[in-house]
Specification:
single chain, about 130 residues, mainly alpha, about 95% helix, UPF0337_stress_rsp, transmembrane helix
Length: about 130
């Protein structure tokens, strides 16, 4: 509860008391002042409630931002971890392919020559 809610409630009660005293004493001026204080107190109390609600929404919004940020960091960390994993696998397979090509130089040369011939034939316009 903030100050506006408290002061608005007190002002509203004072206005009710003034209105009651004015009604009992037959003083319409006091009744009118009491009604004004009642309305002003109710408005101030409503403003205080709106401020409290806005603070709750802000706090909830900050919580959601913190949660989204934490989830984003977790996703980024997971993506980096997977990226390292796939890079390591690609390096391993690349080393393995290079080792096999080095062990089988004749077959590798024949495959590269066939691929170059086929690519040259596909790209030439004289078919």
């Amino acid at each position: 509860m903030n100050r506006d809610r408290f002061e608005g409630g007190v002002r509203h009660l004072r206005g009710r008391a003034k209105t009651a005293v004015g009604a009992v004493s037959g003083d319409p001026g006091r009744q009118f002042d009491g009604a004004i204080d009642q309305a002003a107190g109710a408005a101030q109390h409503a403003y205080g409630r709106a401020r409290d609600t806005a603070q709750v929404w802000r706090r909830d919004g900050e919580h959601l931002i913190d949660e989204a940020s934490a989830r984003g960091r977790a996703i980024a960390d997971e993506a980096a971890s997977r990226g390292r994993h796939y890079r390591d696998r690609a390096e391993h397979h690349g080393r393995h392919a290079a080792r096999r090509a080095d062990e089988n130089k004749g077959a590798t040369l024949a495959i590269v020559a066939a691929a170059a011939f086929g690519l040259g034939w596909l790209l030439s316009g004289d078919r």
